[in-house]
Specification:
CATH class: Mainly Beta
Number of helices: 2
Largest sheet: 7 strands, antiparallel
Number of domains: 1
Shape: globular
Helix content: 10-25%
Structural class: alpha+beta
Order of helices and strands: EEHEEEEEH
Length: about 120
């Protein structure tokens, strides 16, 4: 059980209740800004992780070095709000360099990459 505060780049296995996703669990990457993570707000913004890869600019490759069982990708164009109470099965944390890749993919997904040039 993880007891440290929630941080950007944390990976959690989350149980799914939707019939739209065939899996019972999916890993999500926390992408909310740090000040929000230090509040009591009940949800945080996360990006889902899929084992399929499309090679898109909005995807970030991840794998065993990041705590996952197989090569996967973070899909930054499928952001979702996840209840904080569901973030209990901690998988790992992305490195600073991998989070920079996530930030670039988020900027591309939101069409704001021009702000960072």
């Amino acid at each position: 059980m993880r007891t440290s505060p929630l941080q950007r780049g944390d990976l959690f296995r989350v149980p799914l209740t939707s019939d739209l996703d065939p899996r019972r669990h999916r890993v999500f990457c926390v992408v909310s800004r740090e000040p929000l993570l230090r509040t009591r707000y009940s949800t945080v913004i996360c990006a889902p992780i899929y084992t399929t890869r499309g090679g898109l600019n909005t995807e970030v490759p991840v794998g065993e070095a990041d705590g996952l069982l197989r090569p996967s990708s973070i899909r930054c164009d499928e952001l979702t709000s996840v209840e904080r109470t569901l973030l209990r099965d901690w998988v790992g944390r992305l490195s600073d360099s991998k989070m920079q890749e996530v930030d670039r993919a988020l900027a591309f997904a939101l069409d704001i990459e021009h702000l960072f040039r």
